[in-house]
Amino acid sequence: MTALVFLIVYAGILIFLVGCIRRVLQYSRTPLHLRWELYPVSHEAPERVRHGGSYFEESEWWKKERRPNLAGELRFMIPEMLLLKGLWEFNRKLWYRSFPFHLGLYLLFGAAVLCGLGTILSGFVFGHPLLVVARCFAWGGLVLTTLGGAALFWRRLTDPELRNYTNLGDLVNVGAFALACALVILGSVVGDMVPLGAFARALLTFGFSIQLPAMVSAGLVLGSVIVAYIPYTHMAHFVAKYFTYHEVRWDDTPNNAKIAAKVAEYLTYRPTWLAPHIGADGLKTWADVVTTNPAVAPEVRK
Amino acid sequence: MKNVDIRDISRRDQEPLALPQKNELKPLPAQLSSGEGPAFAPLSPQTVEKCECTLDGTCALNLPRPKSREEEEVLVRKFLTGIEKLFTKENNWTFLQPLLLTMEHCTRCQTCSDSCHLYEASGRNELYRPTFRSEILRRIYFKYVKDGGVLSRWQHGDIELNWPMVARLAELAYRCNLCRRCAQTCPIGADNGLVAHELRKVFSMEMGIAAKAIHDNGSMTQLKTGSSTGMSPAAVKDNVEFIDDEMSEKTGLEVHTPWDVVGAEYLVLHNAGEILAWPENPGAFAVILNAAGVSWTMSSELVGYDSINYGLWYDDAQFARVALKHMEAAKNLKVKKVLIGECGHAHKALSVIADRILMGELNIPRESALTVLRDIVVSGKLNLDPSRNDFPVTLHDPCNIVRLMGVVEPQREILRRIAPQFREMEPHGVNNYCCGGGSGFAIMSPNNFSDWRFEISGRKKLEQVLTAFGDCLDPSIPKYVCAPCSNCKGQMRDLFAYWDLWDKHKILYGGLVELIVNAMTDVKPGFLEWEWH
């Protein structure tokens, strides 16, 4: 039984990683788009980022060296990633539900990493303290994910504003997280759960001989399924967010030789838009299309 | 407020999905009253009979009703092929990545809803919620483009694709100002403004459907005659010569606009609408640039004298064609830089969006007039007396210049020097609200669409203006809304007239250069004319 549970856990993690890599490749392989930035852009110079300004505020900006403001990016990104600052600012009601949920997931991830390290370093002096911290993280993560997931589930179910925008899938998504964590909590409390260190060691060393309470097994299976499913849904926004910020909202890089080379290639694509004024016939390239004036009669164009 | 279900978009009956009522709209400040009844006059029976107008009681596109089910099916198929093309790199390399990210990762949490001035002003009408049209496109995307089966429908929801849905979606694409304030608040970075933009592209580039004012009378007229106003090169030169004469008389300075000067420092690109509707704006530019000793010229080459680029709002091909013509005019005159006048969308079009398609000799640097004017004012080249502008002034931030391009402070630096009673609107800067005329609405007035602009899309800006002048609304005090954007001025002209702000509160709108010239001591006093126009 434990072997089956562990195999599902391994498969869940593997499918999750493959899905995430697939997402990254999908977005990184799309063509460089036209600029579509949105201010404030956090890597702007500190004196401008305060009011949301850009290098266009400087005269002859193209002659001036652009200094990347990594500190500015971090000042934005760290509170956004760890504390969901945007949500706090623009949707406080949701933050109270979403933040515990996300913090719970972060803690569970942290617990997994610490467990792994603690197991590997079990012969050293750090091993035990790491496992103690991991246990705190795991319990905190399980409780917060359960409560946050349940709160999000309830909001999806009852908020009339979300009626148009909630499908069964949305309810299952958050509900499954909450249920999986609740099962592990219950199984650990009422069942005869092995210590976390022993569990981690068994998981890392294919120790299929340990016995897990049935509810913990059910929670692990459900959790693994939902983890595997994440990258194939909108829940992979932790991947998307890199692109929406770094490659869309903050992409203010002015044209340069590298960009020009890419766009030169795109201009050889052959669009097939059908409206007559586009004049695309599947043979003409974008370069042909945009250098043709549809308002001038063909005989004049010749 | 009637609840609208997403699936209602495919309803076959002829009733509008939601007919905004005045008592549902966001209440205005005490001095203005909306009254009762429908938010805008009903459409004429002829329009209702001939056109598709079953969305919300107004009609921006005058889309003709198909004569048969067969014709409907042909149009639906065409729409679907357009949607499929939208997700291919060959047809839409220009915006594919941000569109995919928005389609696939919006969590539909509705955080963006409260940031939208249309949604707020309409009293939270579901149709104007930023995610409403996105949700429709998302369902189409997963069902038809990604060939989603049962699992996908369970995950993403279902939609019935039929002609009523396509017709309503076409109108719905024109119920967004593309100000992207919603995108600013999205925790994921999804962009519902982009969705409206991309839908407009499908309708224009695949189906040949676009608002007449921005396509037939806009970009097509511009590509044919040189300007969306219809002004030929000869006509524009005549008109500007007349403006020079007027300005010379008015200022006491000799005002001359140089044309086709090869090798000038700047090619100045004005929105040609200024030349006809607000001639004092290009006139004031000429006064300032000449007084500051700037080397500049205008171009009489086709398109080279009208900075507008309406393709920005609805059609990538039209956009690129006009942008290339602008830069060809600059290249042919061998100018060192292009200076973009007080026109918001022209700023973003040429400085930001076109940047990556301007190759080699066409990649001539573009500068915002606001930056150049700031440098001139700060340099002390002009003799300025701020007491000439000693009346309440507030600043409208054009979305295209501020939130979408990051030019925030230069205009403020100028106003702080020349307008002693300058006060901000709240919120302002990159958090501003659109004037309600963005994305082409300022020039669109078919049927009762203007009323929709005044009652709904311009409502938030109206509130902001009245609040900014809350301490001095008495009509004995003249007040000035500085709007350094031609389209915003067009919207304000119509909006203020509709709500009678001039007679009731003596609130005037105008550009930034007019205020600068009004403060110039070398100019005869009284450059600003306190009269409604």
Q: Could you describe the 3D structure shown?
A:
The complex is a heterodimer of chains A (302) and B (533). Chain A is mostly helical and 302 residues long. Chain A is 64% helix and 0% strand. In chain A, helix 5 (92-120) crosses helix 8 (196-204) and helix 7 packs antiparallel against helix 9. The model of chain B has no long low-confidence stretch (mean pLDDT 96). Chain B starts with 44 loop residues before the first helix and ends in a 14-residue tail after the last helix. In chain B, helix 16 (344-353) links the parallel strand 3 and strand 4. Chain B is mainly α and 533 residues long. Chain B is globular, with a radius of gyration of 23 Å. Chain B has helices at residues 45-50, 69-86, 89-92, 96-105, 117-121, 130-145, 150-156, 163-172, 181-185, 192-206, 215-225, 233-251, 272-277, 280-291, 316-332, 344-353, 369-379, 410-418, 449-457, 459-468, 486-498, 501-505, 512-519; strands at residues 266-269, 296-297, 337-340, 366-368, 393-395, 422-423, 479-482, 507-510. The longest helix of chain B has 19 residues, at 233-251. In chain B, 62% of the residues are buried. The interface between A and B is large, with 88 and 93 residues.
Counted by DSSP, the helix tally of chain A is 13
Helix-strand pattern of chain A: HHHHHHHHHHHHH
Strand content of chain A: under 5%
Mean pLDDT of chain A: 94
List the domain count of chain B as a whole number.
Answer: 3
Q: Which chain pair shows the most residues in contact?
A: A-B, 88 and 93 residues
Q: What does the largest sheet of chain A look like?
A: none
Q: Which second-level CATH architecture of the largest domain in chain A applies?
A: Up-down Bundle
List the total number of helices of chain B. Answer: 23
* Alpha-carbon Rg of chain B, integer: 23 Å
Helix content of chain A: 55-70%
The number of distinct β-strands of chain B equals 8
Major sheet details of chain B: 4 strands, parallel
Q: Assign the CATH class of the largest domain in chain A.
A: Mainly Alpha
